[in-house]
Each structure stands twice: as structure tokens, then as C-alpha cells.
């Protein structure tokens, strides 16, 4: 039996070659295969072009990413434009170039030939691009099919690090109906070559830039059927300069102005009104720039959290101003003594902590001058029952009613001025308490903003270097 098989094997090979030779014939005076021989192949376009149906048809796939048309974060959709290229082997389209006037390549209508039913599994919309009606056929039976593809695909978009985000979307190519026994797929070019070709066309392509194209082959199971697929991972990176200029820098300027507003005098109501105007302007800024921020149902970008925290910090600074204004302008607190625990905690401990310097109190000077005031008459210097009095030098002074009235008025004025000086002293103490608390809260506020800014910058730097 083995000897019989060795004898019949060359016969079968010659029979196969002769069958193929009969399929595409060439005649003298005619360039390329004859129309009749091609018509025989066209009539069999519904059948997979393989002599042995147990041998699968290998389809090689490559594409060039020509443009990124849009990224819809809310719908989780990526719209791209590809130049797709398919290669496969047609066993019935083989001819001898020497017998066909040196013709090695012809173009045929794609609708007249069998084509692999290669689709993209992430497709979510109809392809509205213009289809290419022809394919190139080589004399060895290898077919090249080029087509333009507007691909609207589903992609799991991660927007947490917006506008410094990097998206990784997959394009899965495979046969729609044929199993792994009929059609196999493989990449036509290396992934490095595909990346280089795509970057040449995407150099001036708006907001997005291509990082790399990766891929791998796998087997997809549908019940008992197995389909061969190839997955291309397209990694794209957003150019953040538009959002940095229009969102982050204006927001940073408003935050710097809010920090500098602490240098306004806290005893003036202008600071609170200024901060309220600043918060109103920041709110209007967020409403105007809301269209530039992406939105999804399953996440919020970090820049949105950044804006919310900035607005919260500006509101906290306004509340701090309200608290300090309450301490400095509350009428019932002006004439009360500063509690002892406030003096110990605020005017001693916190004041030393923030290096607060107290100005010299003029009350002690005024009390020292009171003893030597020549216009103040002491009660021991005159009595109501005497007509004359003796001063320290022994001279006599007349005691007239007008002088007694003047002396009484001076004593009342002195008492009133003493009360005013005491009130001023108490008011100055409360002012010092307010100033100390204002300096403390300002430094805490500045420390929080600095730490927050450093955390945001570090997180964005980490994502940019991924």
C-alpha cells in the first residue's frame, strides 16, 4: 500500500497543477488571463478558494491609523479613520506570467471574488466611508484589498486623569461566520511598522497623538465554535495644552488672588465683599468651562475634583473673613474683658507660634501723664467750706465758685476720658485677638493650598510618565 501511495502522489500533484493551469489560460495576442478562464473563477465566488477545504485560508491584516475623528467620553465611543489592508491567497487565481505576456498583476472587481468576512467586533455604528470596488491579484494567487474604514468603536475610556489621560482602545479583527477551521488571521506587518506608518499621518492631527500600536492573536469561543481573532491595542494620548491654558491657569490665577486678598485689612468690610465677588466670578468661570470637561456616568475627572476643592477653599476663606470680622466688629465684645483662657491660648501661645509682635500700648503713657496733669485738680486741694487755701509754696489762693465748678467739670472729663481709654484698651485687645487668629488661619490656608497643589502636580506627573 505504501508503494502504491508513493506511485500515485506525483500523479495527484500533476493533476492539481494541471487543474490550476486550466483555470487561468492565456492566449497569444492577449495580455493576461483570458476572460473565459476568469469567468469560471467568478462563477465560483460563493465558495472558499481552496482545493483542500480542510486547509484554512490565511488572511493577513494591517491598518494605518490616519485620523482620530472624535472621542465621546459620555457614550464611551472612539471614532477613527483607518486605511485597512487585507491579504489572502486565492488558489484558483494562478497563472504563468511568461505565457501571459509578462503580466504579473491585475485588478478585479471585489464583488466578483470571494472575500473573507473580516469585521471589527467593537463596531457600534454603520460604516459610512467609501468602499474600494477593486482588488489587486498577483500571478501567485495572492490578493491585496485596500479600503478606507470609518470606525466607530466602543472603548472603555478612563477620564480620571483628564487632561493628561492616556486611552487604550482595542480593535478586534476576525471572521464573522467562519471558524478557525476555515479562516485564520494574522498581522501583515509588525506592530512597530504599523505604529511608524500611523505616526507619520497623525503628526498634525489635533488633540490626540498616537503612542503605540500593540497586538496579539487569540481564539474566541462561541459555544462549540472557535474563531480566530487578532486584537490591536491602540494607545493614544491627549495633548493637554488647550485645557491647561483655558482651565488650569485661569483657575490658578483666581486662587492666587484669593490668597493675596488676606493682605487686605481684616477690620474692613472690603475684604469680605472682595471674596464674595471672587467666588461669584469663579462660579461663572466653572459654568462657562463646563462644556470642556468630559462627563461619564461611572467617574469624575480629577480636574473636576480640583475645581470643586478650589471653590470649597475659597468658601472657607470667606468664612474665615466672616469670623474675623465678627470678632473685630461685634459691639458687645468691645466692652468686655478678654477671657483669661483666650489671653493664654491666643495672645501668648499662638502669638509666639506665629511670631506676632504687639505694638506698644499707649494707655500706660496716658496714665503716667495723668499724675502730672496741671489741669486736673485733686479733691484734697480744695474744700467747699473754705474761702482760702494754701499751696505747697505757702502762697494763698482764693476759693471762688467758678473755680470749684471748673474743677468739677475737669474731674468729670477725666473720668470720661478714663472710660474711653479703657474701652480703647479692651478694643485693642480684641483687635489683637482677631489679627492673631487671622494670621494663623491664613498660614494654615496657605499650607493646605500648597500641599494640595503639590499632590495634584505629582499625580499628574505620574500619569504623564506612564
From TrEMBL:
The family database entries (InterPro entries) matched by this protein are listed as:
LGIC_TM_5-HT3, Neur_chan_lig-bd, Neur_chan_lig-bd_sf, Neur_channel, Neuro-gated_channel_TM_sf, Neuro_actylchol_rec, Neurotrans-gated_channel_TM, Neurotransmitter_ion_chnl_CS
Per its UniProt record, what SUPFAM superfamilies does this chain match? Neurotransmitter-gated ion-channel transmembrane pore (SSF90112), Nicotinic receptor ligand binding domain-like (SSF63712)
Where does the Neurotransmitter-gated ion-channel transmembrane domain start and stop, copy by copy? 247-455
**Membrane topology, from the record:** Multi-pass membrane protein
A Gene Ontology molecular function term for this protein is: transmembrane signaling receptor activity
Q: Which Gene3D superfamilies match?
A: Neurotransmitter-gated ion-channel ligand-binding domain, Neurotransmitter-gated ion-channel transmembrane domain
Tell me where the signal peptide lies: 1-21
| GO terms for cellular component | postsynaptic membrane
Task: State the Pfam families in the record.
Answer: Neur_chan_LBD, Neur_chan_memb
Q: Where in the cell is it found?
A: Postsynaptic cell membrane
> Does the record's keyword annotation contain Cell membrane?
yes
Q: Which domain of life is it from?
A: Eukaryota
> Catalyses which reaction?
Na(+)(in) = Na(+)(out); K(+)(in) = K(+)(out); Ca(2+)(in) = Ca(2+)(out)
Locate the region Disordered: 370-395
Query: Which key words are in the record?
Result: Cell membrane, Disulfide bond, Glycoprotein, Ion channel, Ion transport, Ligand-gated ion channel, Membrane, Postsynaptic cell membrane, Receptor, Signal, Synapse, Transmembrane, Transmembrane helix, Transport
Q: Where is the Neurotransmitter-gated ion-channel ligand-binding domain?
A: 44-240
Question: Where is there biased composition of kind Low complexity?
Answer: 380-395
Transmembrane stretches, start-end: 241-264, 276-293, 305-328, 444-463
Summary of the function given for this chain in its UniProt record: Forms serotonin (5-hydroxytryptamine/5-HT3)-activated cation-selective channel complexes, which when activated cause fast, depolarizing responses in neurons.
User: By its UniProt entry, which PANTHER family does this protein fall under?
Assistant: NEUROTRANSMITTER GATED ION CHANNEL
Protein family according to the UniProt entry: Belongs to the ligand-gated ion channel (TC 1.A.9) family.
What protein name does the entry list?
5-hydroxytryptamine receptor 3A-like
Organism from which the protein derives = Cyprinus carpio carpio
Amino acid at each position: 500500500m505504501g508503494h502504491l501511495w508513493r506511485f500515485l502522489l506525483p500523479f495527484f500533484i500533476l493533476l492539481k497543477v494541471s487543474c490550476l493551469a486550466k483555470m487561468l489560460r492565456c492566449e497569444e495576442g492577449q495580455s493576461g488571463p483570458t476572460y473565459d478562464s476568469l469567468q469560471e473563477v467568478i462563477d465560483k465566488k460563493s465558495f472558499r478558494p481552496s482545493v483542500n477545504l480542510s486547509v484554512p485560508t490565511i488572511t493577513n491584516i494591517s491598518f494605518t491609523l490616519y485620523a482620530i475623528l472624535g472621542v465621546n467620553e459620555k457614550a464611551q465611543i472612539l471614532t477613527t479613520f483607518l486605511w485597512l489592508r487585507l491579504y489572502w491567497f486565492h488558489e484558483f487565481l494562478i497563472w504563468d506570467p511568461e505565457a501571459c505576456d509578462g503580466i504579473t498583476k491585475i485588478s478585479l472587481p471585489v464583488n466578483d471574488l470571494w472575500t473573507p468576512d473580516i469585521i471589527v467586533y467593537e463596531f457600534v455604528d454603520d460604516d459610512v466611508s467609501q468602499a474600494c470596488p477593486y482588488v489587486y491579484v498577483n500571478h501567485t494567487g495572492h490578493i491585496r484589498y485596500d479600503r478606507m474604514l470609518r470606525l466607530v468603536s466602543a472603548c472603555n475610556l478612563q477620564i480620571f486623569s483628564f487632561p493628561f489621560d492616556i486611552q487604550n482602545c482595542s480593535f478586534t479583527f476576525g471572521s464573522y461566520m467562519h471558524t478557525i477551521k476555515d479562516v485564520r488571521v494574522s498581522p501583515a506587518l509588525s506592530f512597530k511598522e504599523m505604529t511608524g506608518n500611523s505616526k507619520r499621518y497623525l503628526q498634525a492631527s489635533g488633540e490626540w497623538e498616537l503612542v503605540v500600536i500593540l497586538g496579539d492573536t487569540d481564539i474566541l469561543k462561541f459555544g462549540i465554535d472557535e474563531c480566530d481573532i487578532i486584537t490591536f491595542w491602540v494607545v493614544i494620548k491627549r495633548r493637554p495644552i488647550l485645557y491647561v491654558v483655558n482651565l488650569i491657569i485661569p483657575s490658578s490665577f483666581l486662587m492666587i488672588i484669593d490668597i493675596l486678598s488676606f493682605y487686605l485689612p481684616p477690620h474692613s468690610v472690603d475684604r469680605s465683599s472682595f471674596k464674595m465677588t471672587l467666588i461669584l466670578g469663579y462660579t461663572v468661570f466653572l459654568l462657562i468651562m463646563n462644556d470642556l470637561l468630559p462627563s461619564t456616568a461611572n467617574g469624575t475627572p480629577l480636574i473636576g475634583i480640583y475645581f470643586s476643592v478650589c471653590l470649597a477653599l475659597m468658601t472657607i476663606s470667606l468664612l474665615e473673613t466672616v469670623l474675623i470680622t465678627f470678632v473685630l466688629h461685634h459691639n458687645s465684645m468691645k466692652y468686655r474683658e478678654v477671657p483669661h483662657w483666650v489671653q493664654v491660648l491666643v495672645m501668648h501661645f499662638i502669638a509666639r507660634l506665629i511670631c506676632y509682635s504687639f505694638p506698644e500700648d499707649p494707655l500706660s503713657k496716658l496714665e503716667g501723664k495723668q499724675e502730672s496733669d496741671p489741669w486736673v485738680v485733686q479733691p484734697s486741694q480744695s474744700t467747699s467750706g473754705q474761702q482760702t487755701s494754701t499751696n505747697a509754696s505757702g502762697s494763698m489762693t482764693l476759693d471762688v465758685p467758678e473755680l470749684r465748678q471748673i474743677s468739677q467739670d475737669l474731674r468729670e472729663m477725666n473720668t470720661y476720658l478714663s472710660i474711653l481709654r479703657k474701652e480703647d484698651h479692651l478694643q485693642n485687645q480684641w483687635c489683637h485677638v482677631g489679627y492673631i487668629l487671622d494670621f494663623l488661619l491664613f498660614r494654615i490656608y496657605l499650607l493646605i493650598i500648597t500641599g494640595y497643589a503639590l499632590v495634584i502636580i505629582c499625580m499628574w506627573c505620574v500619569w504623564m510618565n506612564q
